[in-house]
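User: Could you check the structure of this?
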Amino acid sequence: MSEQLNKSAAPMLVRPRRAAPVLVCKKCLKRSDEGRDVRRALKSELKAARREGTKPAKLVMTGCLGLCPKKSIVLASGASLKRQEYVLVEASDQVPRALEMLADE
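Assistant: Sure, the predicted structure tokens are below.
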């Protein structure tokens, strides 16, 4: 009986009510002197950038993304990963421009 259920079940496509998440390397964030300020700025900018009737994008802490810059924090999004691009941020004042770069198609 379970085989019949598995064969008839089809994958579903679901679209969330929020913008695509922003990925942040947790290791870079922890290592950076500006990590706490950058995280706060990211969350604030994502809340401010949300469109009416939608939820703000999530800030997702990830494992190492493999770049390991000395003083920067690595950010990525689905769109930037598709382009094989990452954004490096050193200070919280760079966050608005970094989010623009992540969203650019």
